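>> received
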Amino acid sequence: MSLDEKLKIFIADEEYLISLLSNTSAFFNEHLENINWVGYYLYKDNQLILGPFQGKTACEIIPLNKGVCGHCATTKKTIVVDDVYNFIGHIVCDSASNSEIVLPIIVDNQLFGVLDIDSPIKSRFTNRDKDILENCVKILQDKIQELI
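>> returned
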């Protein structure tokens, strides 16, 4: 069974937004190999605010256009970074992170937040990972829409 199919089953009966975000961060942490941080930054007051996550402590607030997450939130496009230390404006929360994928979460044509996944391995995230995770985000967007 694919990751997106597992996710759909996993969240089918979820009734609360905070539980959805908390458990899906744990879900991704359990099912993705070679990652060291996974979680959400939620859009509020024209900035990104730290949401539920798995991993070391993280930056609490990220301005738009700052770092990979802020850039993703601004462009509303998935960003894959093979080496975060070559990304201009990268925000270091965990110096062990070397690559990153950030996916926008859009609900009702509005930015809800981003899903951020870090890895200690350079070039960890492939085009296949990007496609699978974008499918997962579509499932999450539908569920979030249902809950809010």
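>> Residues 5 and 88 are 35 Å apart (CA to CA).
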